[in-house]
Design goal:
disordered C terminus
Length: 309
């Protein structure tokens, strides 16, 4: 299988993580990203969406860059690293983070998490189209089930709340598409370069258009209070800098579809956090749709059969 071979070749045997190290990295990602939806929701009550996202990118990028420079790791000068970071800044920062923040202002953290984490389905489709992976009938069924699950989630919540937050739903799906594009592009480009600097530079490059958009549409109205400060710090340092170091490192260790398959646990953490900390409720139909999405992700990410040479 071409894709699996690429995943293996990007990391030397000496640099490969043990099962325990990979499990710890996945567990940390799931916890940090799952709680992030509730943290972002709280922060967005104080700070406008684009302002919040721009500050998240700046804090994450500058914090990591300062750490790397202090550790004696100079800014990379090769064109490849900067082009990769620029592309990922557009996908992972502007599209993913921007749409996610805008969605969180319109729908609940649990709903947003479920829609954003359609990402593994989009990654599987991108791997098929651009990375040469084949689909089994079971995986095709999984994709169709994922679409049905989204329709049930959206319809169920619409009935339960009596509202029509279709823009919020579309923004959540758009965030998942942006993140999936960044994942496939990172793997397609060979996952070369310094992962730490790519993580920092994608934040800084992505922050530029966000700052411009925030200044034009929201005027950078950021209150200086405890809630704003701690939520932005969590968003920038934990959910951005630390998490993307782990994410890109895992992508170097394994195929993109394998990594993406495990993050379906994040919506479960987000939903539980949403219910426990914010008291949000889901209709039975929405919960049924969420279960369908989880099953769909599992089906799509079943073990793939290599293509015949």
């Amino acid at each position: 299988m071409r894709f699996a071979a690429t995943a293996e070749s990007t990391t030397s045997t000496a640099d490969r993580w043990t099962t325990a190290q990979s499990a710890f990295a996945f567990g940390t990602l799931v916890l940090v990203w799952g709680l992030a939806f509730v943290v972002f929701h709280v922060g967005l009550q104080e700070v406008p969406a684009l302002d919040f996202t721009a500050l998240r990118a700046l804090v994450g990028g500058l914090g990591l860059a300062i750490f790397l420079l202090a550790a004696g790791r100079p800014v990379p000068r090769d064109r490849f690293s900067h082009v990769t970071a620029l592309i990922l800044g557009g996908c992972n920062v502007v599209a993913f983070w921007g749409f996610q923040s805008l969605a969180l202002q319109r729908i609940s953290p649990g709903e947003t998490a479920i829609l954003v984490y359609l990402q593994p389905l989009f990654v599987a489709l991108g791997a098929r189209l651009f990375l040469g992976e084949s689909f089994s009938p079971t995986q095709v069924a999984g994709l169709l089930l994922g679409v049905v699950g989204v329709v049930v989630i959206v319809g169920g919540q619409d009935i339960a709340t009596g509202g029509r937050e279709w823009l919020g739903y579309l923004l959540g799906i758009g965030a998942g598409l942006g993140w999936a594009a960044g994942t496939v592009i990172f793997k397609q480009r060979g996952a070369r370069g310094d992962v730490l600097w790519i993580s920092a530079l994608q934040c800084l490059y992505g922050a530029v258009p966000l700052v411009l958009l925030a200044g034009i549409t929201e005027g950078f109205r950021v209150p200086i209070d405890v809630t704003s400060v701690w939520t932005i710090l969590y968003a920038g340092l934990m959910a951005s800098a630390l998490s993307y170091i782990l994410w890109f490192s895992l992508l170097r260790q394994r195929a993109a579809s394998q990594v993406a398959a495990y993050v379906f646990l994040v919506p479960l953490v987000a939903v539980l956090s949403d219910a426990a900390l914010l008291g949000s409720r889901f209709s039975p139909l929405a919960l049924l749709g969420g279960a369908a999405v989880v099953l769909a992700i599992r089906l799509v990410n079943e073990r793939r059969t290599p293509k015949s040479p």
